[in-house]
């Protein structure tokens, strides 16, 4: 009787081991892979680029007396200075610092230069984040036309791309990277699994 209990335990253990292996190696795992297409930026790098730009403005001989301020609130930067000419120079400095920090210039959407109080000028810069609905729909259409075995799906301000073939997913990424110059925002590819 005792031998049967031990044997029974071993059989039960072997069965659980088989079930775990089956689940781990694909029996219960989804047979599709996916990744997300997003448009985002590293906020800390924005802060660093602003800090570097402001330091350069305050030490540069032609800008140091301009009383320039750069304020980051939410997804907007407000730049104020004493002339339109100085705002144009500051824009160039900010863009060069952003490039050095690995930020795409597509993140920055510069508004019009407007007069502000105390004989000053202001420019608001919107920080672009997320895929708007029109862009997301056009990307879905583009992916479906070129990759019929891939399923793109809009999820908020991002796209989820799924496929049974990881090779197809890699081809979609390469295709979208080739189109980036024509897009109004920078793309990133995340959550690849």
Q: What percent strand?
A: 15-25%
Radius of gyration: 27 Å
CATH topology of the largest domain: Alpha-Beta Plaits
pLDDT averaged over residues: 86
Question: How many beta-strand segments?
Answer: 8
Count of folded domains: 3
Question: Which structural class do you get from the secondary structure elements?
Answer: alpha+beta
Number of helices: 5
Unreliable parts: 1-10
Structure characterization notes:
It is a single chain. By secondary structure, the chain is an alpha+beta fold. The protein has three domains: 1-29; 33-41 and 131-190, Alpha-Beta Plaits; 43-127, Alpha-Beta Plaits, CATH 3.30.70.990. Helix content is 44%, strand content 25%. The chain is built from five helices and eight strands; from the N terminus they run αβαββαββαββαβ. The strands form two sheets. It has a four-stranded antiparallel β-sheet with strand order 6-7-1-8, covered by helices on one side. A four-stranded antiparallel β-sheet has the order 2-3-5-4. A hairpin with a 3-residue loop joins strand 4 and strand 5. Helix 2 packs across helix 3. The relative contact order is 0.17.
């Amino acid at each position: 009787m005792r031998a049967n209990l031990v044997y029974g335990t071993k059989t039960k253990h072997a069965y659980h081991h088989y079930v775990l292996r089956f689940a781990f190696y694909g029996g219960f795992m989804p047979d599709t892979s996916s990744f997300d297409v997003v448009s985002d930026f590293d906020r800390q790098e924005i802060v660093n680029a602003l800090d570097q730009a402001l330091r350069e403005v305050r030490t540069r001989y032609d800008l140091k007396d301009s009383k320039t301020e750069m304020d980051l609130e939410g997804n907007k930067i407000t730049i104020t200075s004493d002339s339109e000419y100085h705002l144009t120079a500051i824009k160039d400095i900010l863009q060069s610092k952003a490039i050095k920090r690995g930020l795409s210039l597509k993140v920055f959407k510069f508004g019009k230069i407007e007069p502000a109080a105390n004989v000053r000028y202001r420019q608001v810069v919107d920080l672009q984040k997320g895929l708007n609905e029109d862009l997301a729909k056009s990307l879905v259409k583009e992916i479906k036309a070129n990759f019929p075995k891939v399923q793109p799906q809009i999820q908020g301000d991002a796209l989820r791309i799924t496929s049974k073939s990881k090779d197809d997913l890699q081809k979609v990424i390469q295709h979208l990277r080739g189109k980036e110059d024509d897009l109004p925002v920078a793309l990133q590819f995340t959550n690849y699994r």
